[in-house]
Amino acid sequence: MNITQYLQLAGVPHDLHAQALHSLASARAATGGTLGPMLWRKHFVRLFRAGKIASLLTWEDNRLIDRHPELAEWDIAPVLNVTCNGDNSIWRDTPEGGRPDPNGWANPDPGSVDYQLACQRNYWLPGAHPRSPEARKAWYRRNACEYVAWELGCPVETDVQEWTDNGITVLRSGDAWQIRGIVKWFGPIRLKIDIGYEVGNVFAKINGRWVQSWYPLPGYELRACAVWAVYPTLARA
C-alpha cells in the first residue's frame, strides 16, 4: 500500500493529494525514511548519551540547550510544553491564555506538597521527581534528539484539518501533513504508520476540537517535528 492509497483510505479529497504528497516527500527526504539517518542518530543518543545528558544538568535547568548550546542536537524540541523535566508540568493563566510553566516542580524539599505532586505527575519514571537525574535520564531515553526533528520540521498554522477512516488519520496544518494509523499487512501482522510532520503533537483534540497544545520558546518558530516511522505490529485480539 502506498501513500496515495493511505490518503484515499482516510478520505482526503483528490484535489489535495498533490499538496499532501509534496509535504510527505519533504518529510521523508529530511528524515531519510524509516531506517534513515535521523532514526540512528536518535537511537544512539537515547541509548548511549541519556545518562551523560542528565549528569550535565543542574536541578534548576529546564533544557540542555540552555547550559550546553553546543549539544543542541541532543536536546528536546524547543517548546514550553517539553523540558528536560518532562511534559507533564503545571499550566498557568497568562494574558495570552493558559500556558505550560516550564519552571514548575522546582522545590527540592521531599516533604513539600510541590515535590510530592511532581512525583505523582511523573509517568516516564513513576515515583521519581522529574528534576532528578534518574528521571531526566529516563526522559532523554524517550525524547533525545527531538531538537533535530524540530529543525527538520515544518511550520504550522493556527488550524487543523482532519480526515479519518479505515484506521487511517490524516492531519494538515498549513503545509504540514501527517499520516498515522494501523493498516492490515500480512495475516495477524499490521503496519503502524506515523509519517510526515507531527501535527498531532502540536495540537491536541479536546472534546472533538483541535486546539494548540505546543507553544514555542521565545525566538523559536512553532513547527511540527519531522517523523517517518513504518513498522510491523501484532493485531490486538
TrEMBL record:
It comes from Comamonas flocculans. This is Uncharacterized protein.
